[in-house]
Design brief:
The protein has about 200 residues and is mainly α. It has six helices and no strands. Helices cover about 85% and strands about 0% of the residues. The relative contact order is 0.16.
């Protein structure tokens, strides 16, 4: 059963937003792998994607306010939009700190978390495409939950290693904050997955 009628644009906007998230996560991961020299250009590219995402979220909320009867609960549409906005913001915040704090070289654990973020983003893209095509999407949500747990383990180990080996307190503080922003971004992805699962339960 199609949860939103074809004349509505909500699914179209959600898929667009998911694709922007996937693009931003790819830019972040590629820049992290290439090193500090690639991060400033990545920061600019991600800021542009985040701005496009803001425009999409604004359109979703505007359309939501103008639609008298919505096939999905309005709070579910709002929740999905808000959580997706958080993901893009998290990616932008992370790359901004990598640039501002002049992290060089990029620790391998940070690169690994960036890869996890990209994995989460690709699952989000597949989940919203599946929703739009009336196909099952629960497996994608479960994979996001698994990836978020992976990120937790990487970040906890990396921060413990920082406190054990890093002698410069300023470097420790900067790296710890970046790890926390990266990990928070995977939490935001999980929030979207949880909101999607809530939609499935309500409309299954």
């Amino acid at each position: 059963m199609r949860l939103l009628p074809r004349e509505e644009k909500f699914f179209h906007y959600f898929v667009e937003q998911a694709r922007l998230i996937a693009q931003a996560s790819q830019v972040l991961r590629q820049a992290a792998e290439k090193g500090p020299s690639a991060l400033r250009e990545a920061e600019v590219a991600i800021a542009r994607l985040e701005q496009k995402g803001d425009e999409i979220i604004h359109e979703i909320f505007t359309r939501l306010n103008q639609t008298f009867i919505t096939p999905l609960d309005p709070e579910d549409i709002h929740s999905l939009g808000s959580h997706m906005d958080d993901v893009l913001d998290g990616i932008e915040d992370s790359v901004h700190r990598l640039v501002a704090y002049k992290i060089d070289p990029i620790p391998q654990a940070m690169i690994e978390v960036c890869r996890v973020i990209e994995g989460c983003a690709l699952m989000l893209e597949k989940a919203f495409e599946a929703l739009n095509a009336e196909k099952p999407l629960l497996d994608h949500c479960i994979e996001i939950n698994r990836l978020e747990d992976t990120a937790d383990h990487i970040v906890r180990a990396a921060i413990a290693d920082l406190f054990d080996k890093e002698k410069d307190p300023f470097s420790l503080i900067k790296q710890k904050e970046i790890y926390e922003f990266l990990e928070m971004t995977t939490d935001y992805c999980e929030d979207v997955a949880d909101a999607l699962q809530n939609v499935i339960v309500k409309n299954g």
